[in-house]
Amino acid sequence: MSEPALSVVDLVKRYDQVTAVDHLSFSIERGELFGLLGPNGAGKTSTIRALMGIVPADEGTVRILGDLPSNVRGRIGYLPEERGLYAKQRLLEVLVFLAQLKGLDVDTAHQNALTWLERVDLHDRAQDKISELSRGMQQKAQLVATLVHDPDLVILDEPFQGLDPMNVNLVKEILHELQSRGKTIALSSHQMNLVEELCDRIVLINHGRAVLYGSVAEIKRRYAERTVRLRTSVGADALAAVLGAENVEDRNGVKIVHLADREPRDLLRLLLDADIEIQSYEVATAPLQDVFVAAVRSEAV
Amino acid sequence: MKRMLVIASHEFRVNVRRPAYIIFTVAVPIIGLVFLLVSALLGGDMDRIFISGLDADSAPIGIVDHSGVFTPLLPGWEEQVILYADEQAAREALRSERITTMLIVSAGYMESGEVAYSTNESGLRKQVALESDRVRSLFVEHLTRDALSADVRERILESPTYVELDAVTGEPAVNGEGDAWFADMMVAYFFGILLIMSVFTASGYLLQGVAEEKDSRVVEIVISSVSPYELLTGKVLGLGALGLLQVVIWLVAAYALSGGAQGMLGVSFSFTARPEVMVLSLVYFILGFGMYAALMGAASALGTTQQESQKSASVFSMIAALPLFLASGLMQNPNSMLYRVLSWIPLTAPTTMLMRLPMATVPTADIIGSIVLTAASLPLVLWLAGEIFRMGLLMYGKRLTMPEIWRALRNRS
């Protein structure tokens, strides 16, 4: 198998006395949609800048597409969190310029830009000045600027910021398209539902360190509260008689059963054996949102 | 390298369409042309046109003569001088504007030299009214009426017609012809100023451009594609080409106009007759632009807003513009010690030399010294600017302080 699309080993970035990135390691496989998460000020932007080679790292190694970041700049697409385009210049002209900076020749740059503008429904605004575009349009234009040179690795910092639901869907579609074409995507976002929906794996950064790292499903399972949500016609008392009173809770008609040291399948067998009627039986998982909050909180202590 | 050229051509294309640039570039030759045409229409005496605004008109002068010097008037003065018997009558004429100036020549004039006067003129014209050639002739002719022959009187009245010979060769020096010295000086002076302005405007575009890129955050994307050094160098190249285009247009126009001036007015501008002035002007333009553009780049990356950047840049602009502030002395003697010293300091050399060159023959030592020193310090300035540029580029919230810059530079080298 080829090298990962991106690998970070023991990355350290310091600003004066502040250590923004503290021995951070993770890697992103090719073709993966990877989530780069963390609260504000956790060191995400510093990490991205350091791994793009925009600011020099103090320690550690970064490999992108099997090479040094500075050698593969043309194959990376980067959408910064704080972003903008040349306000007084025309949309198409700006896109062609940025694509040329990535190493494309003028004709290809031109062609790609027009294709992408068509894709995001901005083709009729190609000759407009950036400042004449609405905020949502500018957001789409920035995404196009990130993708216009057909990069193999795409790093998107808060790509959904300021988008209406229609455009959120458009961006999601584009991300899926990119992934189906074998592109690797690193995504940073505060919208946990979207991360949960889109990403295969994540790293959660706090205080410059990786707090959580792995597949979304596994992390959610690891952080679940070990409860089962049970719907049944049997009353809480009857359940308590079988499972022990301390393990059963009634929340608006749904019985929350704490697993204690049991496994979910053992609990189910126990209930069946006791001939308890079951309408639904669901092993609870925590939403990524809660996992995020819990992980960051436990760090703070 | 390729990316640097992409940046250079982008900078050039974006800025060449600026209305201010187009207007400035085109307006200078047009103003020159208009000036030339107006001069030609007004009779071709360039100095006259410069000073004509100050010349008192030719309304007669009233004289109340108690001394007898002006009585009777010599033939030929009746049109220009009116003698009044008493002050009352003269003042009446002054009030009715038959005359603009009245002189009261006292009885003791020959001893005291005192002449009282009243005039309707004001400001500079007041001085000119009394010190004009006409008034001088009036006094000299009447005072010497029978004592001197006409040609002696003329030699007294008119300064010699000087013909300059080169100090070394003894050949006639290439110089403005005859009375055109003043026009020649002014044109040369303004020409130097124009080139300096071109340096300042082009490097000002750089400052503005970087500040805008920082402000709109587009710099984040740009800097993920190219190194700060490539970005700065690309910008300097692109805007340098922009300034150079402007200067070349002006140089061509200057040649064309000076040809026109010679044809229409019989006046030649000394500096256009020296091709080395043109060539050296280009050299100093390039050196000067490289210098200031690099410093502007550094300054632009330092500030968090355009205003702040401009403030940091103004330190450099002030130093570079120093020769402009000292221009009055420069007109008196372009080769004085002060300007020679300024020519040897890299930061002021280009501006000083751009002004000195058209105005005088500059010592060869100054030319070589200023070019060598400036060219030698240019790589250092570019490197320094590049480092500061790199550091400042991604700082938005906060200004870089001098100690921070110093520490970072020491770490790098």
What's the structural blueprint in terms of helices and strands?
The complex is a heterodimer of chains A (301) and B (413).
Chain A: E1 6-15, E2 18-28, E3 33-37, H1 44-52, E4 59-64, E5 76-79, H2 91-101, H3 106-119, H4 135-147, E6 153-157, H5 165-180, E7 184-188, H6 192-198, E8 201-206, E9 209-215, H7 216-223, E10 227-231, H8 236-243, E11 248-251, E12 254-258, H9 264-273, E13 280-283, H10 288-300
Parallel strand pairs in A: 3-7, 3-8, 5-6, 6-7
Antiparallel strand pairs in A: 1-2, 1-4, 8-9, 10-12, 10-13, 11-12
Helix pairs in contact in A: 2-3
Chain B: H1 2-16, H2 19-41, H3 46-51, E1 61-65, E2 81-84, H4 87-95, E3 101-105, H5 109-112, E4 115-119, H6 124-131, H7 133-143, H8 150-157, H9 181-216, H10 218-223, H11 228-265, H12 275-302, H13 306-325, H14 327-332, H15 337-344, H16 349-359, H17 364-393, H18 402-412
Parallel strand pairs in B: 1-2, 1-3
Antiparallel strand pairs in B: 3-4
Helix pairs in contact in B: 1-11, 2-11, 9-11, 9-12, 9-13, 9-16, 11-12, 11-17, 12-13, 12-16, 12-17, 13-16, 15-16
